[in-house]
């Protein structure tokens, strides 16, 4: 009797073109590693194409496959969390549906896990045919992120990784709505290691991460892990006030002690423009944080499930979402 389960968690958003191939590849990997039992959790993140139906048709043929259909599109990070909340495995492998991350790497991930590591992330040593733009923005983002935040997020990694059940429990206990998983996992600590791999190009379909989503994601990452932008604002605000104070004395001096005080309008307007610009930026940064407090304080559930097809026979006491350690 094989006791130990390993779960795959696969977020899918409009992946009808790739999902069958992904399931085939993952199925092969599961078959080749037969020291564990497997479950393959697919989270349909509100797809508008045939993704969900394709998954359902596969469930009939392969009882390792499970479906969590979310009520709408919540975004990649939340979809992954929905999967984690339902995973029963002693280890969970988080992988994208588009085969950019090779499922075959599971074997190496598991070897490291068996050695006692709790988080083994895939480190990209080559990113095949991803545009220069995507690579360079990603590189800037991670460096900026590490510069600004209080935790050190490993460079050149995505969410493709194996995490031990301990870490899964830890993530279930983190209630924040603005979820930046790789940050949360870094924050959680435990024994971490990495395995290198080549990031392939998408098997089919287009990236679901246009620039707009990438910027929002970056903002989420920075603001959920760092107070530095706020601190920089106060610091810059302080310097600006000192300079304005000197400016005021200077202006008064010119106005009271000399005769050429009608001059200098250019300088004045410059100062006004500069300070009002700075103020707007800082109010904006404050607003970003305030907005996040607002979202968190509403305490809405992270996501709503529309339908769930799980194999109840091995999921007796693990049915409920968001169950915690105890
Ligand atoms: N995804 C999702 N919800 C979304 C966007 C993406 O579940 O709102 C999934 C998508 O199906 C894929 C993974 O997240 O499995 C990564 O997305 P994608 O490959 O489009 O991102 P990229 O690799 O281009 O950064
Ligand atoms: Mg991709």
Strand and helix layout:
Layout: E1 5-12, H1 19-32, E2 37-44, H2 51-59, E3 65-70, H3 76-84, E4 91-94, H4 106-114, E5 119-127, H5 132-148, E6 157-164, H6 165-172, H7 181-188, E7 192-199, H8 211-225, H9 228-257, H10 265-298, E8 305-309
Parallel strand pairs: 1-2, 1-4, 2-3, 5-7
Antiparallel strand pairs: 3-8, 4-6, 5-6
The protein binds uridine-5'-diphosphate (UDP) and magnesium ion.
What labels would you give this structure?
single chain, 326 residues, alpha/beta, Spore Coat Polysaccharide Biosynthesis Protein SpsA, Chain A, 2 domains, 8-stranded mixed β-sheet, 8 strands, 17% strand, binds uridine-5'-diphosphate, binds magnesium ion
Quickly describe the structure.
The protein has helices spanning 19-32, 51-59, 76-84, 106-114, 132-148, 165-172, 181-188, 211-225, 228-257, 265-298; strands at 5-12, 37-44, 65-70, 91-94, 119-127, 157-164, 192-199, 305-309. The protein is an alpha/beta fold and 326 residues long.
Strand order of the largest sheet: 7-5-6-4-1-2-3-8
Total count of domains:
2
Q: Major sheet: size, sense and barrel closure?
A: 8 strands, mixed
Query: Based on DSSP secondary structure assignment, what is the total number of beta strands?
Result: 8
Bound molecule kinds, no repeats: uridine-5'-diphosphate, magnesium ion
String of helices and strands: EHEHEHEHEHEHHEHHHE
* Beta-strand percentage range: 15-25%
The CATH class name of the largest domain reads: Alpha Beta
Q: What is the helix fraction of residues, given as a range?
A: 40-55%
CATH homologous superfamily annotation of the largest domain: Spore Coat Polysaccharide Biosynthesis Protein SpsA, Chain A
Give the terminus-to-terminus CA distance: 26 Å
CATH topology of the largest domain: Spore Coat Polysaccharide Biosynthesis Protein SpsA, Chain A
CATH architecture assignment name of the largest domain: Alpha-Beta Complex
| Alpha-beta content class | alpha/beta
For the residues shown, what is the average pLDDT? Answer: 81
- Residue stretches low in confidence (pLDDT < 50, at least 5 long) are 316-320, 322-326
